[in-house]
Amino acid sequence: MNNFVFLNNLNEYNTEDALVARIENIHSKAQLLEELSAGLKFPDYFGENWDALDECLNDFHWVENSEIVIIHSNVPNISSGELKSYLEILSSAVKNWSNVSTHKLTVIFSDNDKQTITKS
User: Fold this and answer.
1) How far, in whole angstroms, is CA 104 from its chain's centroid?
2) For the domain that residue 76 is a member of, what is the CATH number?
3) Which H helix or E strand runs over 7?
4) What is the pTM of this model?
5) What tens digit of pLDDT does each residue of 44-54 get?
6) How far apart are CA 19 and CA 13, in angstroms?
7) Strands 5-7 and 104-110: what pairing?
8) Which domain, by its residues, includes 49?
9) DSSP assignment of 34-69, as one string?
10) DSSP tag of 11
11) Helix, strand, coil proportions of the chain in percent (round to 5)?
12) Residues 111-120: pLDDT tens digits?
């Protein structure tokens, strides 16, 4: 999962002119999807499941900002299987946007969580 940015200080990333979703203190898949939907202003048709998340993270037709940033203050406290699915969806979306000029997706985690993320 080397498509993510790991920072010692989460506030050091320049988010000026970016659409930013801050994800913190997540304790369920439903809460995670709600926070992402609100922070990234997903369309009303967002289905609040992994497939719908994957679809929205690879579209962004409703977003005027060219940069989209998801900042995790900590790793979501969800089951290991759900976390693996979530990280795979994020990683794939970051990779997909790296070849497109209309948007750039950046996913940030704390340096403290790097080991947890890389072994998931």
Assistant:
1) 12
2) 3.30.370.10
3) strand 5-7
4) 0.94
5) 999 999 999 99
6) 13
7) parallel
8) 5-119
9) HHHHHHTT--TT--SSHHHHHHHHTT-TT---SEEE
10) G
11) 40, 20, 40
12) 999 999 988 7
